[in-house]
């Protein structure tokens, strides 16, 4: 299971995991994320909740280091969030929106290439790809192209693409989206296993069942129900 540990010999510190302090974003003269703080340590899940348009995806993008902050700070394992930092990218895997894929590569080939990108040798990468295919219960999709799957199947493949690489922090935008009940349960099991292995999981969700299954704390944005 691809959950990185801190550098060998380095004990966990209070800055491990995700620390968001009073982060605010404005675009086009409007506040799109009001000042928001959260803390999630190793092995902890925090669910970001709130109504449509509240800023959940924006907060995840800020934690992923792909948004300019208007104020506040995001620190991940002691590293200031910045997608241009190789050290930061090594720590953080995210599924926020649809990942880019290639038309002429199969599901297994996509997964193996991502694993190789993060340092796996060819045979290790093939095995890692098969491991996440098994974990996500998408064996029948192994040799499909990504234009040959349903929207729910695509969601599982995108999750597999996120899980096949090493990470300590996992950021997910509505991981339950487009999934039926059985597959939502499978995703909850997958995430519970990653938490158990020490990952920090921060995710936006509209699913009370997923929040309960993961024993997540919640960080709510906005006031509407
Ligand atoms: N690039 C942008 N420029 C201007 N406004 C934006 C931009 N991206 C998002 N917004 C606005 O920011 C606000 C927050 O959007 P965001 O996608 O973070 O909401 P959300 O809580 O994830 O919503 P949902 O539950 O519908 O996914 C919305 O009002 C949206 O219209």
In short:
InterPro entries: AAA+_ATPase (IPR003593), ABC_transporter-like_ATP-bd (IPR003439), P-loop_NTPase (IPR027417). With 225 residues, this protein is an alpha/beta fold. It has helices at residues 56-63, 86-91, 107-117, 122-135, 151-163, 181-196, 208-213, and strands at residues 18-27, 30-40, 45-49, 71-76, 79-80, 92-95, 169-173, 200-204, 217-220.
Notes on the structure:
The chain is of the alpha/beta class. The chain has a single domain, classed as P-loop containing nucleotide triphosphate hydrolases (Rossmann fold, 3-Layer(aba) Sandwich), CATH 3.40.50.300. It is 33% helix and 23% strand. The protein has 7 helices and 9 strands; from the N terminus they run βββαββαβαααβαβαβ. It has helices at 56-63, 86-91, 107-117, 122-135, 151-163, 181-196, 208-213; strands at 18-27, 30-40, 45-49, 71-76, 79-80, 92-95, 169-173, 200-204, 217-220. It has a 5-stranded parallel beta sheet with strand order 6-7-8-3-9, with helices on both faces. A 4-stranded antiparallel beta sheet has the order 2-1-4-5. Helix 6 (181-196) links the parallel strand 7 (169-173) and strand 8 (200-204). Helix 3 packs across helix 4 and helix 4 packs across helix 5. Adenosine-5'-triphosphate binds next to helix 1. The site of adenosine-5'-triphosphate has 12 residues, from helix 1. One of its GO terms (molecular function) is ATP binding. InterPro entries: AAA+_ATPase (IPR003593), ABC_transporter-like_ATP-bd (IPR003439), P-loop_NTPase (IPR027417).
